Amino acid sequence: MLGEQLAARHLERRGCTILACNAHVAGGEIDLVALHGDTLVFVEVKTTRQPIASSGEPLGRLLPRQRARLRRLAGAWLAGAEHPPARRLRLDAIGVRVDGRGRLIALDHVEGAW
Predict the structure, then answer these.
(1) For 75-94, how does the pLDDT look when each residue is reduced to its tens digit (9 = 90+)?
(2) CATH number, span 2-110
């Protein structure tokens, strides 16, 4: 939940409007859904909690099956939710690293990750 909150703030600073957090759809949950101009963005967030000296990369834990899952969930969200018109769709990945106290160490955002 902390990772999603930090990722949502990051997206808002970049001009996105958050449409849904932890959106439940048939078959699972989408971490974030945002609108960026005329682009609807579906976001997978991976968070790791670690000591500052550690160098673990949360995006390294993303697997090809998660891409397929996010595409399937995005389709279910589009079919079931009322949403603003969008000319494009994008699948992003955001990796969040926080320390033991929940303070942000790093945030990596890959637009169009898949």
Answers:
(1) 999 998 788 888 899 999 99
(2) 3.40.1350.10
